[in-house]
Amino acid sequence: MAVPSAADRGAGAPPPIRALPPQPGRPTLRKAVAIALAGAIFFFDTLSPAGIAVAVLYAIVIMMSVDLCDRRGLMLVSLGCALLTMLSFFIGHGLSFNDGPLLRCFVSLAAIAITTLLALRNQRATEILTESEWRYRRIFQTAGVAIWEEDFSAIQSALRNLRQRGIADIRSYLAANPQFVQNCISMVQILDVNDAAVRLLGARDKIEVTASLKSFFLPETVESFQEMLCAMFEGKRSFAYESAIQTVTGERRAILMSATFPPETESYRNVLVSVLDTTERDRAQRALQQAQSALAHVSRVSTLGELTASIAHEVNQPLAAIVTNGEACLRWLDREPPELGEARACVQRSVSEGRRAGAVVQRLRDLSRRSDPRIVPLDINAAIEEAALLVDREASDHGVSIKLDLEARLPELRFDRIELQQIVINLIINAMHAMEKVAGRPKEVTVESRAESPAAVRISVCDRGTGIDPAAMPRLFDAFFTTRQEGIGLGLSICRSIVEAHGGRIWAENNADHGGGHGASFHILLSTAAEGGR
Q1: Which fold has domain 376-534?
Q2: What are 264-301's pLDDT values in tens digits?
């Protein structure tokens, strides 16, 4: 049988893994048997007085040659058998063309021709199958993804037994019977692994990988295997899950495991499980998140620097009230007799103003502190009101009024309060800057909150400035892109990073494009379906 040569496969290409090892002498022996059989048929056909088509037996010789010759060789064997048939006819009957012998000769030649056609077709099908197997094995071995070829037939039977016992909620059953999961792990038979799997696990060879599947399992791996059992039980055709395994040396590796299952009616004897090493990707993502967090912190501190007037006002106002109430308290105490009730009221007002000042300082500390995001259920409107309060004095100094148009009873979202306030403050400050050169109309910033659906909230910050240059719109959220000479172009980029990290979306549009008059609007869409994206 013809198989791809080493040159056809390319240098370094692995041979088919399931190919039988070469057995010296076997092809030579089969050739000798085929030649001897052809000679015996020729001898019997020539000398036998029996009136039968003995030459039909040459079909056996042709079938024996299928695995010994290529296509050309097989046709030569068939031609040889046909020539022997005709030679035997002329030796036995000469030029006497009697009906009986001539008919038997034609039958034999027809049998040889038909057998040759079938043999050639079978040989071609075998070659195609061999080439397909070789291509599969080449992909299997050279793929950059670690691949396990496993036999899940025992697990398939175990899950079928659970159905027959009336088990419907597989997750509850597995949670109550963890030993069943361990038993299923033991049922897995590893048929083969590729070189990438050997490298991933840091093993010396395939034998070390296939020796014990459990030795590479971590608690996360058991959890992912349990999810795979649920997918098989529920009849799903594919499965993917982020998990972890440990190498031969005990090193933990983050992975993305996936598998494709045959239809439930077929056997699970050959299931391919692919494992992608995501350790370096996860490290890079963590480093990126840390860098974004640091950048967001710097942006918050920079923003606070722009709000010095508002901060001073928010702190000085309760401090002045404390002093005023303290002086009034002293006057009430200096009376004869002292007015203790009035003095108590003054002290109570001082305590209240002190707490107010403390709350302002705490909000400023929260904004300036560098910490990990705290994804918690959040009152969106309360967070917006606090953010607007911090900017209010700065806005007044610039002749800008802030209007809050907040819809009551918004869907509850999980979000980091400080990060949401950072976004709102940044957008309000941008709106103030957009109206610096406006004259002849009120400078007004409107902050809206709306329930877009039972599971989504939209926050909009609208100004009445000059609008956004359409040419700048595509780059508006790019890092270091700014339309202000003194700007550094990080505010909107950080806003987008925060919103997208929570699974939301942010965009901008000119109000004139929607018949809304002057200025521009920035919109943030957050949904409960994507909440807590970090």
Answers
A1: Heat Shock Protein 90 (3.30.565)
A2: 777 888 888 888 888 888 787 777 666 656 655 555 55
